[in-house]
Amino acid sequence: MKLVLVYSGGLDSTVLLHHLLAEGHEIHCLGIDYGQRHRRELVSGQAICERLGVEYRVVDLTAIRPLLKGSSLTDSVSLPEGAYNIENMKSTVVPNRNMILLSLAIAWAASLRADAVAYAAHAGDHPLYPDCRPEFAQAMDRAAALCDWNPVRLLRPFIDMGKRDIVRRGAELGVPFELTWSCYQGGQRHCGRCGTCRERRDAFARAGISDPTEYQSPD
Amino acid sequence: MKLVLVYSGGLDSTVLLHHLLAEGHEIHCLGIDYGQRHRRELVSGQAICERLGVEYRVVDLTAIRPLLKGSSLTDSVSLPEGAYNIENMKSTVVPNRNMILLSLAIAWAASLRADAVAYAAHAGDHPLYPDCRPEFAQAMDRAAALCDWNPVRLLRPFIDMGKRDIVRRGAELGVPFELTWSCYQGGQRHCGRCGTCRERRDAFARAGISDPTEYQSPD
């Protein structure tokens, strides 16, 4: 199939990219710069796509920042440290982010006459993000099937896998984990303390796979 | 209610703006510059909102043009003249335009804690635009209700009205029709020949309302 992949340069979407290539699909990667603090991930995405010889198109959506007030990922609100939990991480919700990303990916898929848009939703997605709910994904599936005369499908190949399983699948595929980026702080190295860094470390530990990430905070 | 209105500066959305203000709602207007040939409409929108003292925020989405290949509204493909019909106007379809516009309006509504997004879909919307189908609107309604913890409603107050009825409603409300912009060509005056100009003229004629538009081509 010909697919558009919503691709951030993070752990999950990088494993998904390798997984889809291994299945023989033609992939076009879409990255979005929406003014996220951790736009460092886009540089990782670029490096990985170059290595694989896959198209990576980054769209500059920073003009929409004035519409997205109040998220610590895009505003000057300070980013919470420590484990993911509702109280701690609510500020990282970017209003309607998934619908915006998917609408652009679907538009590109329609232009390319691609069959589907794939993205790395997984079983561990946090219930604090309303647009990670399965009912939301179902509504978007339906909208994507109707928005163009050539229906676009939405694929979530990792929806039944947790992050541990994703790391294992990545190891099988020889994914260069050291090139991927997770940290929400967006420094030179992974901070090791924010919610996504903790999850990343934890996923490698539980998968029994050696973690090549250099963390600023060693534990 | 507090509402975000998808607002182009065109005839339909300008009548809707006046209609919603007359109903007593607080309105925040969103215009999108997606590189449309007729971005002249955004200037009209600005002038009308200033006159009404309503916020009009235009977001520059021209960065997404590389994703939207093949539409005569955004590309260098020449624009068809003459009446709307499938063969003639297929080139004016912008891939997934409505989902993109709605996703941004919904994001802004969620940020503002607004109740709903309104847009000027109407009974005369052309069946050649797949994302004007009612099933598509229903899927988007559902997605909007789920994308945030505070559900956002989608309102289409004119969905049962044709363009003739919209002109009549506008006349009742004292809408300054001469400030609105419809023409897809985006010149200094309405061309009078493209599909939207023909529809505009026809709507005034059928409504029995004098048309204040200066057309380049008098008939």
Would you give an account of this structure?
- The structure is a homodimer of 219-residue chains.
- Helices cover 37% and strands 11% of the residues of chain A.
- Chain A is of the alpha/beta class and 219 residues long.
- Chain A has a single domain (2-207), classed as Rossmann fold.
- The first copy, chain A, has a five-stranded parallel beta sheet, sandwiched between helices.
- In chain A, helix 5 (134-146) links the parallel strand 4 and strand 5 (153-155).
- The N and C termini of chain A lie far apart (42 Å).
- The interface between A and B is large, with 39 and 39 residues.
**Strand count of chain A:** 5
Unreliable segments of 5+ consecutive residues of chain A? none
Q: Note the gap between the termini of chain A.
A: 42 Å
What is the highest CATH level, the class of chain A?
Alpha Beta
What's the helix count of chain A? Answer: 7
Radius of gyration of chain A: 17 Å
Number of domains of chain A: 1
What is the percentage of strand-forming residues of chain A?
A: 5-15%
Of all protein chain pairs, which has the greatest interface, and how many residues does each chain bring to it?
A: A-B, 39 and 39 residues
Query: What structural category do the secondary elements of chain A indicate?
Result: alpha/beta
What are the defining features of this structure?
homodimer, 219 residues, alpha/beta, Rossmann fold, five-stranded parallel β-sheet, 7 helices, 5 strands
